Amino acid sequence: MRIQTTVMASSVVMFTILAGGCAMPGTGSKVVLSTDKTYPAIGPYSQMVGHGRLIYFSGVIPLNKEGTAVQGTTIEEQTRLVLEYIGMQLQSQGLGYTDVLNSTVYMKDLNDFAAMNRIYGEFFKEAPPARATVEVARLPRDVKIEIAVVAARR
Predict the structure, then answer these.
(1) Which residues contact 16 (CB under 8 A, 6 or more apart)?
(2) In a domain, 9, yes or no
(3) Which residues of 74-107 are buried (b: 16+ CB within 10 A; e: fewer)?
(4) Could you tell me if residue 56 is inside a domain?
(5) pTM of the model
């Protein structure tokens, strides 16, 4: 009787895990995603990659729509453009800023953190995502900021 109960309990746990959509190794497939609302990938990478309910967004920098020139000279201008581009990418997948689970902010100078944070807060007003912010020695095209996010489909 005890063995039978243990087997049944194990079966219920396994069914719950599988039916609940928990990430399991080897399930789902990688899907490359893109939008023409922002600049195209400017190297051997994808704008976005979906896997299961998650979408991983490549780092976004403040370029013009063609991807040929940096836009904005201040941290505020560059942060706003980057977050607007992220919004366009989210929207292309039927998502919004509230669907972002995590962001990584790369900054050229952490002395600009307060100014960046003010703009960032305008976009993530409710239930902001987890975030890491780091200062780096250099960013592509010598921009002041790059932001990468991970979002979840509902």
Answers:
(1) none
(2) no
(3) ebbebbbbbbebbbebbebbebebebbeebbbbb
(4) yes
(5) 0.82
User: Which DSSP string do the residues of 13-51 spell out, in sequence order?
Assistant: HHHHHHHTT---TT-S-EEEE--SSSPPP-SSS-SEEEE
Report yes or no: 42 and 15 within 8 Å, Cβ to Cβ: no
**Which domain, by its residues, includes 130?**
27-152
pLDDT tens string, the chain, 154 residues long: the values are: 444 433 333 333 333 333 333 343 455 799 999 999 999 998 999 999 999 999 999 999 999 999 999 999 999 999 999 999 999 999 999 999 999 999 999 999 999 999 999 999 999 999 999 999 999 999 999 999 999 999 999 8
Return the structure tokens found at 135. 């200062």
DSSP letter at 98? G
CATH number where 67 lies: 3.30.1330.40
Tally of CB atoms within 10 A around 19: 8
